Amino acid sequence: MAEDNTLKGLVDQTEGPHAEELVIRFEGMDADEQRLPLDDFLSSLAGWRDYLNVASSAFLQKKLTLMQPAEGGRLDIRIREVRRGSQEAVFVLGIAAGAIAGFLGAKADRVLTAQNLKRMWEWANALCSFHVQEKKSFHTKEEIAVALEEMAEENGIAVNREKPESERFVGYVDDCLKQASSPVERSATDVIVSANVLNIRIDAGARRAIKSGFIVSPEAAGYFPARVRVRELNLDTGHTSVEVLASQNEQFVSKLRKCYIEDPLLTEPGNPYSQSLDTHMPIDVFVSQAVDRDSGVTVKWRIRSDLPKRSGPLFGN
């Protein structure tokens, strides 16, 4: 058995019915060799601190918001020990009884507090799983925010639709989980967080989803439909000249417009571009424009036969 060397730290002096133990464990790679880099260790702990605070704040305030509750209503997370042999960090989580009573509108006795703390951890579990799954599903930040609002209301958490903060909430949760899972694929294969019924595991598939950027919808990326007739075509380079017959973007309208085809169909026999060139028949395409950042001038028009797909086996199960 590996020697359990412990570093004793500060312990919350108000431990009691409203204090619980939180364990953050790292597995695989450097963690198994007891050589987890200090930067990875501290960065991950800070990320989990921020994530648990934002999740618990939303639950305790019964409001989907990034506003922090009054002093005494936040999680008080303090280190108890670091078990070097098993790459575990053990913390004490404390929260004032008065804060629970104030938020929940009921007397914070032992039974009620235990029940609601359990529900709070279930919410933190669900929020993390939800966020990872939504990013694995290639949803935009806007789409994730709408789905989050529904999940929040199902958990008794109010949403202010007149002044939506849901997208900011999604972005903040994403930042927290990026930092919390930073050791994965670099110095550990898994990060596990557990407390009461809280049980979150971030593996390589979840990490890849979390660290990826938010998907931008084709519409938001500036694609618009047009009808064109191909006049010139280079199958090797993808460069083409088209006659624009109809377009939702007046800037694109031209008797002869040079474009670049960013479409995998171009290399297939009988592709629509070759057919249009041969038969002089128009085809319907989707167009986007590359704009010079400094001048704001369009430097390239790109066309394709359909909108980009947003699914694929990128993140695993």
* Main β-sheet description: 5 strands, antiparallel
Number of helices in the DSSP assignment: 7
The helical percent reads 25-40%
Strand order of the largest sheet: 2-3-1-4-5
What is the H-and-E element order? EHEEHHHHEEHEEEHEE
The averaged pLDDT comes out at: 80
Rg, nearest Å: 26 Å
Distance between the termini: 33 Å
In percent, how much strand structure appears in the residues? 15-25%
**Shape, principal axes of CA atoms:** elongated
Find the count of extended strands (DSSP E, 2+ residues).
10
Number of domains: 2
Structural class: alpha+beta
Instruction: List unreliable stretches of 5+ residues.
Output: 1-17, 96-112
Structural account:
The structure is a single chain. By secondary structure, the protein is α+β, with helices and mostly antiparallel strands. It folds into two domains: 19-211, no CATH class; 224-304, OB fold (Dihydrolipoamide Acetyltransferase, E2P). It has helices at 38-61, 97-104, 110-136, 141-154, 166-180, 204-211, 272-279, and strands at residues 19-27, 76-83, 88-94, 190-195, 198-202, 224-233, 239-247, 257-261, 283-291, 298-304. The strands form two sheets. The chain has a five-stranded antiparallel β-sheet with strand order 2-3-1-4-5. It has a five-stranded mixed barrel with strand order 6-7-8-10-9. α1 (38-61) crosses α3, α1 runs antiparallel to α5 and α3 packs across α6 (204-211). The longest helix has 27 residues, at 110-136. The radius of gyration is 26 Å and the shape is elongated. The two termini are 33 Å apart. Mean pLDDT is 80; it is low at 1-17 and 96-112.
